[in-house]
Amino acid sequence: MLDVKYLRADPEAVAVQLARRGFEFDVAGFQSLEERRKALQTRTEQLQAERNSRSKNIGKAKAQGQDIAPLLADVERLGGELDAARAELDSVQNSLTALTQGLPNLPHASVPDGKDENDNVEVRRWGDPRPAEGAKDHADLGEALGLMDFAMAAKLTGARFTVLRGQLARLHRALAQFMLDVHTTEHGYQEVYVPYIVNGTSLLGTGQLPKFGEDLFTLQGDHDWRLIPTAEVPVTNFLRDEILAAEELPQRWVAHTPCFRSEAGSAGRDTRGMIRQHQFDKVELVHASLPEHSYETLELLVSHAEAILQKLELPYRVVALCAGDMGASAAKTYDLEVWLPSQNTYREISSCSNCEAFQARRMLARYRHPETKKPELLHTLNGSGVAVGRAMVAVLENYQRPDGRIDVPTVLRPYMGGLEVIG
RNA sequence: GGAGAGAUGGCCGAGUGGACGAAGGCGCUCCCCUGCUAAGGGAGUAUACGGCUUAUACCCGUAUCGAGGGUUCGAAUCCCUCUCUCUCCGCCA
């Protein structure tokens, strides 16, 4: 959510900044709603104040044994007026909330202009991409080894799921373990284990709701429960309704969880292989930061994700997303894209964002300012460190031998019982 | 799943219809006193929002005693629904 005060003070400036994302903000509509809200709220609160003071008088009169009948008659009309005013205020406020909760974050000044992924800006590259010639894709490699089974997954569930067996199942686990170990022992993260099911309030806090509910799997039953689309949701919501001491910042958490996405609207995209699944594992990094440090924290976060790819010796590039390609909660996002020889291109394997106070404002995540002693919104950041499924895809494709067997990256061998080659 | 008890401010804890945003204690902040490794005295100490405002400073107002709804002129207090916690039983990893 954006700062309402700023929205009111300078809606045109907000509209200009949101236009960079291709988002059209209806300034006139907002302002007319605001005017009505202001008038109604003032009136409602006045009526409430009046009712409160009269009710107190009734109490006093009663205590003194006076006749309260005339006072009751006097206050009678207030009830109806108050109810009407309140109802009208509620409806205006609901419209306003719907409008403001639907607004995406303002892009940071350093975010490049552009409307989609084609306008993203490459920041740097690492490693030497192996040529595409003769490279098989991960699905062919895995199926040929007999260790990756899409047909079985389709039988069990449906499209966009995978069954892994044997050394590939272990490779998948090894990757997750390796990433967790690097982040906890070298980068100072606290490992956390969290629910894979969250309530609607949590999803509202991180911004998946109210606008992006169709991307989520909803559970049946009495609870307002959904499967997490990313560990960002449960972990960031640690901070909801909390006021941290300034000394408690920064906080760094890492969680390995499955992620569930309905992939609504992705029909036909990446239907082959493990690139785009309804269920995938991810190691997620979440930071809570002082506002003044959040941009250096973002660079740090990216470097932590990069460290994983470097240790795995997977070629990648870092891309700054343009304003039009960023997620709604982000003020600035870097993607890490790993080299996939079968596609002769780089594909997203991590996305690292500074949400500034956008999520913090929704979830009232604050810290106590050491000088003013007042609660202030903190900044939240999150990034994949990295997607486990896609990391496995990248390992298969980049470490494939001409005979279809797979070299095990050196750093993973301790996690694979010393195994050097799969197949 | 069954039975019972509970949810109040940073913490503990009082409060069963009226001057209660909430006694008291602890903690914390500031001041005073005290020359000693102690103690005492005083003041202050929730959050969100609205109005006013150059102001996130005052001031005024509204809301919040787990959440939502209801009764009432008036609800922390009464009623309903839900959530969570604890105890016992059952079941289970």
Give a description of the structure.
The protein has helices at residues 4-9, 11-19, 27-63, 69-101, 138-144, 150-156, 166-185, 200-206, 232-236, 294-311, 358-363, 388-398; strands at 121-126, 148-149, 163-164, 190-191, 197-199, 225-227, 243-245, 251-260, 279-289, 316-320, 332-340, 345-354, 366-368, 375-377, 379-387, 406-407, 421-422. The chain is elongated, with a radius of gyration of 27 Å. Helices cover 39% and strands 20% of the residues. The protein has 423 residues and is α+β, with helices and mostly antiparallel strands. An 8-stranded mixed beta sheet has the order 1-10-11-12-15-9-8-4. The structure holds one RNA strand of 93 nucleotides.
Q: Give the SSE order as H and E letters.
A: HHHHEHEHEHEEHEHEEEHEEEHEEEHEE
Largest sheet: 8 strands, mixed
- For the CA atoms, what is the radius of gyration? 27 Å
Q: Structural class of the helix and strand makeup?
A: alpha+beta
Shape summary = elongated
Strand order of the largest sheet: 1-10-11-12-15-9-8-4
Approximately how much helix is present in the residues? 25-40%
Distance between the termini: 50 Å
Low-confidence stretches: none
What's a concise summary of this model?
The protein has 423 residues and is an alpha+beta fold. The protein has helices at 4-9, 11-19, 27-63, 69-101, 138-144, 150-156, 166-185, 200-206, 232-236, 294-311, 358-363, 388-398; strands at 121-126, 148-149, 163-164, 190-191, 197-199, 225-227, 243-245, 251-260, 279-289, 316-320, 332-340, 345-354, 366-368, 375-377, 379-387, 406-407, 421-422.
